[in-house]
Amino acid sequence: MGEENASHAAIVCHPHPLYGGTMHNKVVFNAMKALSGFGFPVLRFNFRGAGLSEGKHDEGRGEIEDVRAAIEWLDESFALPIIFAGFSFGAATGLRASCTDKRVVGLISLGTPVSAEGRIYSYSFLAECEKPKLFISGSRDQYGPVANLEKIVSLAAEPKTFLLVEEADHFFEGKIPIMRTAIEEWVRTTFVSPALQRR
Fold it and tell me: Which CATH fold topology does 9-197 show?
């Protein structure tokens, strides 16, 4: 799991478990492949009550603790700086857990939800989050209207990058290769190339 000389570890969180979201989701899988391509050990896990995981869905509260437990496990297992990635509910939940954790050095939010399943997501905490952030969403994301996403990103602290994938829906149907390439390029320029330049 990961190369011996890996520079970072990574965690990828899945979409809403009550609507079929598990760690086997296509977006989650491709985010994992993008990150593991750098030799990083990458942890995917099911939130409580999803797949074969014990417990039951906790409206996002307990799921934040799930992310914190996953970060703890990654840190104990590899002692490497961690890059967080999450899709939809996984992004909303994981960003909240990761922004304040010093072991997490970068954040990737895929299909950032604004309004989904009757719930409004708030990201005011991103104004204090000065870690590098990558936001990737589709221009036709039914749970993240572009105008709302632009406002969320504009209020987030620097550094940040926002990529809008044209004609893509919330699940990046038919556009996953574009999403995956964008993750790879951002990780390479933000974390991998600077490390190589210092050698």
Answer: Rossmann fold (3.40.50)
